[in-house]
Amino acid sequence: MPLSMVRPGQRAKIRKIKGGRGLVGKLANMGLYPGVEIEVIANRPGPLILNTGGVRLGLGYGMANRILVSPIS
Amino acid sequence: MKDNVEAKSVKIALAGNPNSGKTTVFNNLTGGRQHVGNWPGVTVEKKEGTYTHNSHEVTVVDLPGIYSLTAYSLDERIARDFLIREKPDAVVVVIDASNLERNHYLVTQLLELGAKVILDLNMMDMVRSRGVEIDTGKLSAVLDIPVIETVAFRGEGMEELKEAIAKAKAERGDSLKIDYDHDIEGEIEKLQNAVALPGYPSRWVAVKLLEGDAEVLKMVEDTGIAPLVLEAQTRLERHLGYDLETALVERRYAFLSGLVRESTKKRLDLMERLDLSDRIDRVLVNRFLGIPIFLAMMWLVFQLVFTLGAPLAEGIDLLMGWLGEGVSSGIGAVGGPRWLSSLLSDGIIGGVGSVLVFLPNIMLLFLAIAILEASGYMARAAFVMDRLMHALGLHGKSFIPMLLGFGCNIPGIMATRTLESEKDRILTILVNPLMSCSARLPIYVLFAGAFFPRNQGLVIFSLYLMGIILAVVVARIFKGIFFKGEVAPLIMELPPYRLPTIKGVLVHMWERSSLFLRKAGTIIFLGVVLIWFLASLPFGVEYASQESVIGRLGSVFAPLLKPAGFGFWQAGVALSFGILAKEVVVGTLGTLYGVEEAGLTGVIQAQFTALSAYAFMVMALVYIPCIAAIATIKRETNWKWTALAVGYSLVLGWGLAVLIYQIGAFIITLT
């Protein structure tokens, strides 16, 4: 499912990043890559904020739709 | 003797992610011995500092805050080019040790590039308080680099860091080899043999080519290697079953997580308590509360700047008046020539003084911006504004350059470097001058104070708001004409909210305010002297009368300004000189009328009406960016965009001033 669907408080593992050349690398620079675990802090209403290893990243809505994740219960 | 000195001079670069505490480390190392590159005329904005340690003369170059050495943004490219071309003796990488994996990514990239890295594990206090142990010895052994633990804001570990830097020159630097697995390694080797770029490690070039790094691809264009690279990429992607970029990223992170696992005792757990910062965020960036809170913050900033600034400004004004009188009566007493007394008191003290009066306002504005930045709110503001900015055809990240533009458009324009997309960047630059910079503030304060004393704050706020609305409209139009297509998606780190330190905030405020002071000392000073001469020549004319050179000059422009309600020569002269720097508008009026700010109010009240004063303020807001801003736009873009920036603003500014005056006058005749 797309990251944009994950509810606040839920954890998920990144599966795939849909995007042109460059986007994968750019997200990797910020610490988002396939296999990494994240936790959604805030989402809808408002921008998506997630936690990866203690760092908070804010993502615009368009970006959050391109990241596919599988939730961890 | 000379050799000896050279052997002990060390040049290092300071690299690190934004929010890693890099600036604090820089300040700790160099203390007061810093040099901030002046904006105009310098090709790359960079901070340099020096210090001496055990007879080693160390120069520290502060690189922009970056996450990697790819070439996604100008900041990254600047850092990369510096490291490759200047080959510093060592690169100190400051990382936030509480997230080793992510922050090590930059370190591995530097090592792959073959830089001599000294790793500064900063914020160790946070790591320790979370009960994590980092085995720096192991980290150092695996990466084969010195590793220093620091807590920069308390100054801990600085001596050790200096010691490591002093030794760095003697160390050899090996590039780190990350094992990218059999298939990829094979292609790397082939490419390594096929192409060489002087000055670059060949393995690095090969990896970057496989990654599809646009910059490196361009550098090897002539070698005709492009088809070979494409072949290798397709071959690998078929083998791997997914895209190569992801594969390379995964390998790097696999290496990193192995490294982190081995060198830390308790792995940082992902599940942390929802901390205070997160709870604040849920309120501050909330869809419904975000924008109202943001507007309230801005209102607060304006209140701080104007309410607190006014009495301070009056103090400076009194001082200047007293100084001017003192100088002219002093010269009179010793029998000095009248022209000298006029030059000093009418020209210099009157002109520069009327600008210096606004120093308190400007310092307070920069203080407010520094607090917003240091507290972490500024990054959130980008998200709060993201939706809105998108609707306007701009990027969420455009927001920060725009906000900085309220201080000064030059740092605002330079801050667009963090935007990855060229289209978004140029668009943001083009509309940035519409953000009313602090240099225009003196004009508003003067005119609004003279004509709208009851509603001064409201009138000034309306001008700032008008600037924003115009920026939106202009951006929409330009986007439609020049930059069709999608806005690049937004992702940004949100630093935890922090109480700003007094020292940090004051340093930032001073860095920016001193730019203004320097301008007052140079451009504005020269401007007012020039104006004084033009106003005094030819010999024998009454000072600053219409018969003077400047009076005649202004008379040429005056008819053009007539439809806007201020068709007298002083306004024409002031606006022309305002292109030097917007503050000069007030300075020029001061010089032309031979009075300081207090007297100026009376003079302009006689010449302007409330309506024409408002039209004049709008004109001053929009027409032509100042020389320094024009130069910066040119440096960040090209002549074509610079000409557009100058042209559209002049037409728009004049058109609006005329429109406001004519409509206003029409309404007045009705009532």
Task: Give a quick rundown of the structure.
The complex is a heterodimer of chains A (73) and B (671). With 73 residues, chain A is an alpha+beta fold.
Write the SSE topology.
The complex is a heterodimer of chains A (73) and B (671).
Chain A: E1 11-17, H1 23-29, E2 37-42, E3 48-52, E4 55-59, H2 61-65, E5 67-72
Antiparallel strand pairs in A: 1-2, 1-5, 2-3, 3-4
Chain B: H1 2-7, E1 9-16, H2 22-30, E2 34-36, E3 47-53, E4 56-62, H3 74-86, E5 90-96, H4 100-112, E6 117-122, H5 124-129, H6 136-143, E7 147-149, H7 158-168, H8 182-194, H9 202-211, H10 214-219, H11 226-240, H12 244-263, H13 276-284, H14 290-333, H15 338-356, H16 359-375, H17 377-384, H18 386-391, H19 399-405, H20 409-414, H21 422-431, H22 441-451, H23 456-482, E8 491-494, H24 502-521, H25 523-536, H26 549-561, H27 569-578, H28 583-593, H29 597-607, H30 610-622, H31 627-636, H32 639-670
Parallel strand pairs in B: 1-4, 1-5, 5-6, 6-7
Antiparallel strand pairs in B: 2-3, 3-4
Helix pairs in contact in B: 4-12, 6-12, 8-9, 8-11, 14-15, 14-16, 15-25, 15-28, 16-24, 21-23, 22-23, 22-29, 22-30, 24-25, 25-28, 26-27, 27-28, 30-32, 31-32
